[in-house]
Amino acid sequence: MNVVFVTGNRHKFHEALHILSAYGIHLHQDTKGYIEIQSDSIEEIVLFGIKEVMKRARDKSAYIIEDAGLFIEALDGFPGPYSSYVYRTIGNRGILKLMEGVKNRRAKFVSCVGFCSKDSDPVLFKGEVYGNISWFERGSHGFGFDPIFEFGSTGKTFGEMTPDEKSACSHRFIALKKFANFFMEYEKERA
Ligand code: IMP
Fold first, then answer.
1. For the stretch 64-86, what's the b/e string if a residue is b when 16 or more beta carbons lie within 10 angstroms of its beta carbon?
2. Could you give the CA distance from residue 145 to residue 165 in angstroms, rounded to a whole number?
3. Which of 18, 102, 125, 145 would staple 178 via disulfide (CB 3.0–4.6 Å)?
4. Residue of 30, 67, 119, 146 marked catalytic
């Protein structure tokens, strides 16, 4: 089973490659990109993006895209769908500065995967995990906000987890697992 993942982010691609290989899904990377609209809703961004990808698709391949965001409770969900811009501008240090002295550290990571093919309308799959914003950056694994997101009650940041550990529990894992279960049924029906 082959799926094309449209993303320029090699970290995301490798996480997804590893997660989906357990389901016998072979992932191929397409780095051509797509238009990412500005919206308060990650689902809306993904739906628009996957429709854009399908406009240029010339074959019957299955395509996925993914958008993720960090939602911090004490900041009313900021940076949320603006995570990419916020990471590029103020980064982890900026987030920790905004959180200085803030006792409520609760946060969640959300991943939304969008699937589409010439034979299917777009379908979205969501994964969410809860945790806390750490007081310092910790760990050298992963990417983005990983060093400041303590997963669940483990006390470990994603940055302190090995790639295997993160890929067994992350928001991306949950969303991709839902996609994989859907996709296996979809392929069976088409066979
Ligand atoms: P996007 O999904 O590529 O738009 O990601 C939004 C922002 O969140 C980027 O700055 C990413 O680096 C960051 N991000 C996305 N997924 C993760 C993750 O799994 N861990 C840490 N940061 C992430």
1. bbbbbbbbbbebebbbbbbbeeb
2. 16
3. 125
4. 67
pLDDT digits (tens, 9 = 90+) for 44-64: 999 999 999 999 887 889 999
pLDDT in tens, 92-120: 999 999 999 999 999 999 999 999 998 89
Cβ of 67 less than 6 Å from ligand 1:
yes
Given ligand 1 and candidates 10, 65, 112, 143, which is best to mutate, with the most ligand atoms within 8 Å of its CB?
Answer: 143
| Bridge pairing between strands 26-30 and 2-6 | parallel
Structural domains of the chain ordered from first start: 2-190 (3.90.950.10)
Beta carbon of 39 within 6 Å of any ligand 1 atom: no
Residue 145 — pLDDT band, cuts 50, 70, 90? Answer: very high
